[in-house]
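Reviewers of the previous submission asked for a worked example of the structure-prediction workflow described in the proposal, so we include one complete record here. The input consisted solely of the amino acid sequence. No template or homolog information was supplied to the procedure at any stage.
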Amino acid sequence: MGRFDPEAYWDGRLKSNPGLTGVGYLGLGEPFNRWMYHVRQAVFARVARAHLPKITGLHVLDVGSGTGQYLEAWRRLGAGRIVGSDLTATAVERLSSGMPDVQVLRMDISDTAALPAERFDAITCMDVLFHVVDDAKLEQALANLRRLLRPDGVLFLSDIFVHGQDHKQEHFTTRSLATYTAALERNGLRVVQRHPVFHLLNRPLDSDSPLLHRWWGLVMRVCKLHPRLGGALAAAVYPLELLLVRLRREGVSAEIMVCVPQP
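From that input alone, the workflow returned the following structure tokens.
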């Protein structure tokens, strides 16, 4: 296996898949991914309102903006100045063209070279860091996120914080909650709370429930039959999904971890 080149990987993926499939779950189709992002947006909006007393006028940064889903989320929440960023030229060009009112930076969060000098009231880094497969780069990314936060700022970090062992693949790494928490503490960040994002509409990587895994197998079979069928299934499950993730304290897939700078 050769050395993983994240910039080349994501540039190629976004060029081949310009819609939500490019930043979402490959193989499930655009309609299913659209509903997955509806879930993400609804959960993020709820979490952001719970942890930010006042969002209007805040200076915010989104890391790994991709197709701009969280830039739009910050807009809907009423944030003041919104800055986006992405590793690839493809994403930066598309976002700059589609959102002329938003500054979009070309930035690798695991590299200090291109970091802006400004500091932010809130930062979103959603479904990004599990693609930082090198542990040293993850440490640098967390240090950079801390550096970009104001002393009273809030970091919203979405990942899969498994309760088992770390597991590395070529372009995707699942890290344990213990690994993540220790890395955050080493880099000056404290975990305030975790909020589940999915229960039924994403692969249950952090669950040993046979029922959930059988359900996910059914989801994948339906999506492969036809993308519209997958979208219809996700639409039907959407209200239940939002209820389940609101009620649960532990997630079986992605979670939003809310972090603040250590004093």
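The chain has nine helices and ten strands. We consider this example representative of the routine output the project will generate in years two and three.
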